[in-house]
Amino acid sequence: MTPTRWPGRWPDCWTAPSCAPASGPPGARGCWPTSPGPARPPGRPSCTAGRSPPAESAGDRAPPGRPPPAHRHPYLRHRRQAPVLTVDFTRFPLAAGDRVLDLGCGAGRHAFECYRRGAQVVALDQNGEEIREVAKWFAAMEEAGEAPEGATATAMEGDALNLPFPDDSFDVVIISEVMEHIPDDKGVLAEMVRVLKPGGRIAVTVPRYGPEKICWTLSDAYHEVEGGHIRIYKADQLLARMREAGLKPYGTHHAHALHSPYWWLKCAFGVDNDKALPVRAYHKLLVWDIMKKPLATRVAEQLLNPVVGKSFVAYATKPHLPKAEA
Which end of the chain has fewer CB atoms within 10 angstroms, the N or the C? Predict the structure, then answer.
């Protein structure tokens, strides 16, 4: 069976707080940028594997019966910036109580955001290590009071081609930077449509054709590894697949323009070469941008997203079935 996310895929370290060193942001040491990258080469350890919560000091403890503030929670206190999200929730709104499936959740960045927005979240992935880490973070968020009343979160292992849910189970399905890894992408779309309620919404994100093609041209190692990208989608191709599956697309956009040059540098100097000066310099720029969110880079990315955005994002609904004639 085809897995939801291939073993060995590089983790979403920009958004996985467990990648953070003892004092510093995620990505500041030994981590890779956002999920539109390829599979992790064999032998590269996962940032999230075996990570346990930081030890709690006396100053971090909350009074008995009260959860600690989120910024002082032993598992959350190092997160100092908003997660890097590919799905734009201003275009893909969630209502409190929506039942959400984050399919191929990876490190859980979109699942965490949905949980914070009051959804009933199921984060599913084939990678057991990542799922165990996501479950720890769900528990930490609940303990820290980050989730609204009524929100729920479950992390579970599963197969994208054989989802363990009945028909019409979810109001929302998100699949971010996963379909380019799976040979039977039509089968995955069919399963997502099956578990999505009529009138429900789906968000699909994949690497964009142009920036991805440059990466493939610069480096075979970028994609010719176990669990790597096996196809590059053109926008019209992905939208056609979604329509064939019975979905009705209603909007698209591009994201992460500032990350495209990073991957081009990685491919040019070697996807395993972290020491090349241009790669290290641009990595520092990205960390600074994520931490500080200066206006200049925010505006620059908005202007550049339509041109070199690393990800293509498509939103669609599952139409209601016509009522049977009496």
Answer: C
Whether the predicted model's global pTM rises above the 0.85 cut: no
- CA distances (Å), origin 211, targets 48, 98, 120, 252: 27, 34, 35, 17
Closest CA to 97 of 74, 118, 126: 118
What Å distances lie between residue 135 and 7, 126, 294, 320, CA to CA? 18, 14, 32, 34
Token digits for 283?
């990595």
Residue (of 84, 4, 85, 13) closest to 46 by Cα position: 13
192-226 pLDDT per residue, tens: 999 999 999 999 999 999 999 999 999 998 888 87
Q: How far apart are CA 152 and CA 182, in angstroms?
A: 29
Query: DSSP states of 242-254 as a string?
Result: HHHTT-EEEEEEE
Helix (H) or strand (E) holding 186: helix 185-195
In the sheet that 152-157 helps form, which strands lie side by side, from edge to edge?
Answer: 152-157, 120-125, 99-103, 170-176, 196-207, 311-317, 248-255
CA 252 to chain centre: 17
